[in-house]
Amino acid sequence: MIAKDFMIGAATAAHQVEGNNIHSDYWLQENMPHTSFLEPSGIACDHYNRYKEDIKMMADAGLNAYRFSIEWARIEPEEGLFDENEINHYEDVINTCLSYNVKPIVTLMHFTSPAWLIKKGGWTSVSTVEYFRRYVSYVIDKLGSKLEFVCTINEANMGLQLAAISKRFKLMAEQVAKKADGTVQVGMNFEKMMENMKYAAMENAQIFGTPDPKIFVSSRDLNDDEIVIKAHLAAREEIKKLYPNIKVGLTLSLHDLQDVGGGEKYIKEAWNEEFSHYLPYIKDDDFLGVQNYTRTLYGENGQLPAPEGAELTQMNYEYYPEALGNVIRKVNEEYKGVIIVTENGVAIDDDERRVNFINKAIEGIKKCLNEGIKINGYFYWSLMDNFEWQKGYSQKFGLVAVDRTSMERTAKKSLYYLGSYNK
């Protein structure tokens, strides 16, 4: 069964909900004339100004934890320039959580970076490791006394997943590229990316000084992946130096890899890339953030599409809440530390199907707990319908609906259903 101190919460990322993140790489890219984004983030959900209302809504529904990110581009809008007003803002977010008995779980890097960092080489430059260390040191020095859990980097493996997809679909037609969207657990718009590639390269060169800026969510190889790993290790070192009692980990995007016959070698390779090769670097972490949304099928010729007639989400991947329990068990075979489900959710209009998804996901967690696996929390993605990166506001992941004109919040049944697990 679920213990009383088990965290039941929701998750957000700063750029996707706060609005007007004008110093970030994403803000610049989504506002280019030939952008791959369906629409710019703009005011997003105005969470920057409405966080007190949003946190109260979570608490009133019964949630006892909130995972959110601190935006590096706000904290350090220019190289070496730290904005005290912004660190004070995030301190107030934390204080608001604590005042409602909602445990704040902070992520220090959730995809978006300061534009200046990308102009200096971004996430393939060794210098980024020390820039990240400096940022982390500043944030933890200011806020660490109020934190128990810190995620250094969100989905450290996302660049490798995107590289695999880009390779697989590079030479395929637009119609096939459209279907590719459903093979990665982040909002990507491959069809529009193909259309705009030539123009976007020129515009990127004007903005970042290179036609191929290395943002965090760029395709990367194992060599570049070492930069991300070193950044995590540097961050962990700084956090432990300042506040040894803070529990530190990173999060990984993980699929439930299933063999339908002859796909064993592909699964072994994919799982090593997605998870196993990180083990030497996370073995001393205090927890691992597991993020899962669906399963991936493999046969004798490699990856397969969703089964014929399968229910698909708005993200074009299969509705399959049972994947979470399977992934937790698979992780536990190699990683014996504490697991926190830092993201799991579904983009769908039908909120009854969302309730069903949460029910089946948490039933999977309960079974894993009964098997002796150490799990300390479940965070649904996302608290509210938000900016799903290149897919804009078209994806309805939220427990809370947001009116795009008035910003009025409307809690869905699923919010209260999730909160009921804490009552």
State the gist of this model:
The protein is α/β, with parallel strands linked by helices.
Order of helices and strands: EHHHEHHEHHEHHHHEEEHHEEEHEHEEEH
How is the CATH topology named? Answer: TIM Barrel
Report the biggest beta sheet as strand number plus sense, adding barrel if it closes: 9 strands, parallel
Determine the number of helices (DSSP H or I, runs of at least 4 residues): 16
Task: Categorize the overall geometry.
Answer: globular
CATH superfamily: Glycosidases
Instruction: Kindly give the count of domains.
Output: 1
What portion of residues belong to β-strands?
A: 15-25%
Q: Stretches where pLDDT falls below 50 for ≥5 residues?
A: 171-178
- At the first level of CATH, the class is Alpha Beta
Distance between the termini: 13 Å
Instruction: Briefly note the structural class of the backbone.
Output: alpha/beta
Assign the CATH architecture: Alpha-Beta Barrel
- Number of DSSP strands? 14
Structure explained in plain terms:
By secondary structure, this protein is of the alpha/beta class. It has one domain (7-422): TIM Barrel. The protein is 43% helix and 15% strand. It contains 16 helices and 14 strands. The strands form 3 sheets. The chain has a 9-stranded parallel β-sheet. It is globular, with a radius of gyration of 20 Å. Mean pLDDT is 93; it is low at 171-178.
